[in-house]
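Dear colleague,

Thank you for sharing your sequence with our group. We've completed the structure prediction you requested, and as agreed, I am returning the results in plain text so they can be pasted directly into your records. Please verify that the sequence below matches your submission; if there's any discrepancy, let me know and we will rerun it promptly.
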Amino acid sequence: MNSIESFLAAKTYAVAGASARTHKYGYKVFKALLASGRETYPLNPVTEEIDGHKAYPKITDLSIVPESLSIITPPEVTRRVIADAIAAGVKNIWMQPGAEDEQASQSARDAGINVIDDGSCILVLLARH
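Please find the predicted structure tokens below.
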């Protein structure tokens, strides 16, 4: 199974940078994962709810550990998100275009996490499946 297949085979997901603003990429990724039937949790420290789903400030605030985490944040925020994801025990991380941070990617890989940070877009893949 390749990196993307492993990410998409998970049972639970979180989206760091999920947004309540419908034109934002974080909103579109969150909604696309939900629409594909995946159990998905929005992560956003300044939003309480996204389309009726409780939003959580960070991954360590969830009562479960999502297997896969999609990140749509600026690189300086990505570093903190990755540190939390490592602490939580996430198995797969997909940094969406613009969220990539080389140091964070290496930290995640060193922790044994499957990392996708090649500029590929989850929305393009979900549209194909």
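Summary note from our side: The two ends are 16 Å apart (CA to CA).

Kind regards,
the structure core
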